[in-house]
Design brief:
22% strand, 223 residues, single chain, Rossmann fold, alpha/beta, 2 domains, 4-stranded antiparallel sheet, 9 helices, binds calcium ion
Amino acid sequence: MHVLVVEDDARLSRLLRRLLTQDRHVVETALTAGDGLEIATSGAELDAIVLDVGLPDRSGFDVARILRKQGSQIPILMLTARDAVSDRVEGLDAGADDYLVKPFAYEELLARLRALGRRPPTRKSIALRSGPFELDETTRRVTVGGKPVDLSQREFSILECLLRRPGQVLSRDQLLDYAWPYGVALTPNTVEAYIHLLREKVGNSAANYIETVRGVGYRLREG
Ligand code: CA
């Protein structure tokens, strides 16, 4: 399995790397939530993420939430420091598949990882369709009027957000939060620029479906 370990305790991180490598996993490590998110969303084919809750920049709960919001189905094993019910519930609510309370036995970590690897994907590939658009969240393929269109990651996210709520007006801020979930300081003008690119890529007739709602945001015309 290809495993990402997100753990800020450098000693534990090194130990987990050694252990998992011995168990014949391919291991990547990240010491912060930001780095972990970057690796997890970079297109790396991960089979599981071992995710610590207490990270310096943001919590493991946040990381799980962001990944799930982006449609990632990578199994997540959460490492919590306390055996508090609220922690476990929050972790599972955030989209974790399993959790382990620190300190844990390494055998147990390995066993749980193997179990996660055997688990079939919980969510099937979902195609979002509206008007001429079809977007597959798993393969990240987009077709417009049956023809494949090559979109950048941000263009894809913006179209995905619109396709999730056809007919609804979405504000620039909503689109910004969806396509840039890391809280990078961007202005609503960025959204405008990406909508412009998106319209150009999908072609004139499909671009008409992406309507500007003056002073508010954008709406995908239903059809
Ligand atoms: Ca920690």
